[in-house]
From TrEMBL:
Domain Fumarylacetoacetase-like C-terminal: 76-291
Segments crossing the lipid bilayer: none
Keywords per UniProt: Hydrolase
Top-rank lineage group of the source organism: Bacteria
Disordered as annotated region, ranges: 285-316
Organism, as annotated: Nonomuraea roseola
GO MF: hydrolase activity
Protein name as catalogued: Fumarylacetoacetate hydrolase family protein
Length: 316
């Protein structure tokens, strides 16, 4: 099954994608509302959508939203260790990863309120000149669970979708000095969709690609994950009740971000206004988004004790 959410005069509508058309459910039903069990509600809703749709629309005639426009939570993981190795090499710090990378899977929390649909414009994070994309796959939790084994966690997945983690690399680098995790370098935008694809229709060996202005930047397969979704979800569920609709990003497929090409001759420059980024994922669908200049940030005054302020006071 492939599910989509689209904008209508009655608000967001949800439907089953079949033969290039969305077979819509009645107003008020949502992908999130169809989760919570082992998939029975999704299957029952698919039967209703095909046999007695509330509306039928061609995909090209509607404005697609993210399948789940406001997930309860977003955890973005780092399941491909080669991505981190590539980033270190690009930063001039080649070498192996420390033991902790092989002991626990890394993740951080992203911002559910900044989720974008597959064809929405993407504003550059305020204050960033090093804006980047990251091609990922997202797994969506279908039923609640806590302290899950990796097998239980894998079975809790209701479906998958394309994900783009938009990253302000200059802000990310600055915030890294604080050593408390990701913040404004990561929360300006996250793209999801266009479809939620149930596990029976998702092929982990499929090739995914990312292109910038028609030029392929990178490609890869989820089959190359060093940490599986089952493992990272199991880890995240330790002492925590995961909820239907919680979303887990795979982390960047190696070579599928600009920062990884920074030190080589293939670096095309950071994203600027008017650039078009396209993700392609087979049954997962395709995203195509235009980058737009973001707002200027409101400045914050320096804190007492800041070196520059101390120098200014001493000189006055």
């Amino acid at each position: 099954m492939r599910w989509a959410t689209y904008a209508s005069s009655e608000g967001a509508r949800t439907g089953l994608v079949h033969d290039g058309r969305i077979h819509a459910l009645p107003p008020g039903e949502s992908v999130l509302g169809l989760l919570g069990d082992d998939g029975d509600k999704l299957r029952e809703a698919a039967d209703r959508a095909l046999t007695a749709p509330a509306a039928v629309a061609r995909l090209e005639e509607v404005s697609l939203l993210a399948p789940i426009p406001r997930p309860p939570s977003i955890r973005d993981c780092l399941c491909f260790l080669d991505h981190m190795r590539n980033c270190l090499k690009a930063a001039g710090a080649p070498g192996g990863l420390g033991p902790v990378w092989y002991e626990i899977p890394a993740f951080y929390f992203a911002c559910p309120s900044s989720v974008l649909g597959a064809y929405d414009d993407v504003p550059i994070a305020p204050g960033s000149a090093w804006f980047d994309f990251e091609l990922e796959v997202a797994a969506v939790i279908g039923r609640p669970g806590r302290d899950l084994t990796p097998d239980e966690a894998q079975r809790s997945i209701a479906g998958y979708m394309l994900m783009c983690d938009w990253s302000a690399r200059d802000l990310q680098m600055l915030e890294g000095e604080l050593r408390i995790g990701q913040a404004k370098g990561k929360d300006s935008a996250t793209t999801l969709g266009p479809f939620l694809v149930t596990p029976d229709e998702f092929e982990f060996a499929a090739e995914l690609t990312v292109s910038l202005n028609g030029r392929r930047i990178g490609s890869g397969s989820p089959a190359a994950m060093d940490w599986s979704f089952g493992e990272v979800i199991s880890y995240a569920s330790r002492g925590v009740e995961l909820q239907p609709g919680d979303l887990f990003g795979s982390g960047t497929l190696p070579g599928c971000s600009l920062v990884e090409h920074f030190a080589g001759g293939s670096f095309p420059g950071w994203l600027t206004d008017g650039d078009v980024v396209t993700l392609s994922g087979g049954r997962l669908g395709e995203t195509r988004q235009t980058i737009r200049r973001g707002p200027d940030p409101h400045p914050l005054p320096p804190r007492p004790g800041h070196p520059s302020l101390s120098v200014a006071l001493n000189q006055s």
